Amino acid sequence: MKFSQIPGHKTTIDILRRSVLQGRVSHAQLFTGPEGCGSLALALAYAQYLSCENRTESDSCGICRSCLKYEKLIHPDLHFVFPVIKDKKNNEPVSDTFISQWREFLGQSPYFTLNSWLEFIDVENAQGLIFSQEAAEIIKKLSLKSFESDFKVMIIWLPEKMHLATANKLLKLIEEPPEKTLFLLVSDEPDKVIPTLLSRCLYLKIPSFSRQDVASYLIDHYNLPADKASGLAHVARGNLIKAIELCRSEESTILNLNYFRNLMRLAWKRDIVSVVSWTEEISAIGREAQKNFISYSLRLLRENLMMSLNQSKNNLVFLTGEETEFSS
């Protein structure tokens, strides 16, 4: 991942580049911001830039031995920790148990949620966690000398999912790490990370993407027409993950709008018999589809409330064209 592959975030990228060029790399850093802000992508690009054999002032080269291994997520000095799940086969799982799936999933896109990661490994109704045995794995990996790069990099995605015992075991390691070791913690909810761990990290607060940056990404990666990309970017409100989900799930979005529209019309008519039929139809679509519909409905109710308060003029209503047509 190169900095140039990340839309926008020029100021944040400049801060990261300067820290490397000036030799002021803090050994423990917390990348945090709202969901969909690209924090994981920035951490990957930063680690690649730090390890690049031919980096320029602006970016990693993308073609040296180090960059090519980073691109495939197989660099021997790049390590990952992320939430995993227990099952019948793995009662004491660690991140390396799922490293092949992780590389495949992350290789597709660095913009995703915990739920989408758990869905990828075919887990339903399970809570992803970083279990206590992960601490021993981290200590073992970082006790070794680096293989190829100057720095060993440990990217911990969602440290808020870390068991308290794991976090406590890592405190001294993060406070007094082995030489040339870099911890990059990537968090959506830093308030849920234990304070003693946070106090050892340098904060990097990452803002949401601009609407223009989101639209440009959708145009470049999904070949969307400019007007449609702009509409999805408006609805996503700077959340690139949300924009990608909207782009990929256009069919389910249309289906959810139809469900919502039918329910609202039946409720307006007070047609109880038809509402019962509608309920039976919804009960047959499956749990995940139902959760998706509820989330979609909550968003539409919010947007319609804002519209009724005449907030369109203040640019506080986020609806697609078809949704606006129904709500008007």
CATH class of the largest domain: Alpha Beta
H/I helix tally: 15
Structural class: alpha/beta
Strand line-up of the largest beta sheet? 2-3-4-1-5
Summed over residues and divided by their number, the pLDDT gives a mean of 90
**Largest sheet, described in full?**
5 strands, parallel
Task: Report the portion of residues in β strands.
Answer: 5-15%
Helical proportion, percent range: 40-55%
Detailed description of the structure:
By secondary structure, the protein is α/β, with parallel strands linked by helices. The chain folds into 3 domains: about 5-205, P-loop containing nucleotide triphosphate hydrolases (Rossmann fold, 3-Layer(aba) Sandwich), CATH 3.40.50.300; about 210-250; about 250-328, no CATH class. The chain is built from 15 helices and 5 strands. It has helices spanning about 10-20, 40-50, 65-70, 100-110, 115-120, 135-140, 165-175, 195-200, 210-220, 225-235, 240-250, 250-270, 270-285, 285-310, 320-325; strands at about 30, 80, 150-155, 180-185, 200-205. Strands 2-3-4-1-5 form a 5-stranded parallel beta sheet, with helices on both faces. Strand 3 (about 150-155), helix 7 (about 165-175) and strand 4 (about 180-185) form a beta-alpha-beta unit. Helix 1 packs parallel to helix 2 (about 40-50), helix 2 (about 40-50) packs antiparallel against helix 3 (about 65-70) and helix 6 (about 135-140) runs parallel beside helix 7 (about 165-175). The longest helix is centred in the last third of the chain and has 22 residues, at about 285-310. The chain is globular, with a radius of gyration of 22 Å.
